[in-house]
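Chapter summary example.
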Amino acid sequence: MMMTDAYSSCHPAVAFTFFAGTICCSVVIQHPAYLIAGCLAAAAYDLLLKGRKALKNLFLLLPFALLLAAVNPLFNTAGERILFYVSGRPYTLEALLYGAALAGIFLSMMLWFSCFNVVMSSDKIACLFGNLIPSLSLLLTMVFRMVPGLTGKTQQVICARRSIGKGSCKADGYRARLDDGMTVLSAMTSWALEGSIVTADSMRSRGYGTAKRSSFMIYRMSSRDRILLAVQIVLLLLVILSAAQGQTAAAFTPELSAAPVSWGIAAYSAYLMIPVLLHLKEALQWHISRLKI
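The structure predicted for these 293 residues follows.
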């Protein structure tokens, strides 16, 4: 169940700046404290956006993350502290911790992209890049629109085939289910190609690309958006400054080393928690308003 999010109502430039900085930092920074902060903030915001559905996604992602951490020492044998041997190859603590860091990056990235897909809808992307990169903006809008349409159309074709006795079920053999799936895939491919041709003809008849296009933007930068954007930029600059001072440095192989936790983690945590804190602030104000009625 999708929940109403205060951060989603902000200007698209505010949200895009936040996710761009968050995703870049999540990829570059490997310090354990920063990774833990990123995973916790991403999980909290994903739970805030999706509720129980986010819990299901988290339970699906955790085994992959743990598997990535456990498998890494099987291929990377660098390290001084040997825990045990696997087929004569050393299974080291340093390689295990490095795998845990990679797992943290993987988990935070998946969670942040999950939040990005909810907050940054196709109309917001078109609003940001419609004038700068019109072709790319149109392509992204069509792709985002096609995915749910293709899913719904697939279910219609499957139900229609079952209603005339041509659908497959679990009792059928593997070959029958494969043939049925290929038939549905062929129908969906034909439908998608036909739809793209119709869309191209429609855009050509409307004169798309023949002259500079005008655009209508429903999003306006408010004073709250300007303040949020300024706060995000300041906090992101502080994180970059802390990284330049070596506060985010960490190494796992061949020796373990990590910079002491300093003020940079506070700036990074505050930056990551902006959407959650904004939502809690709006929820608290709404609750207080209801009590005054």
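To summarize the output: The two ends are 29 Å apart (CA to CA).
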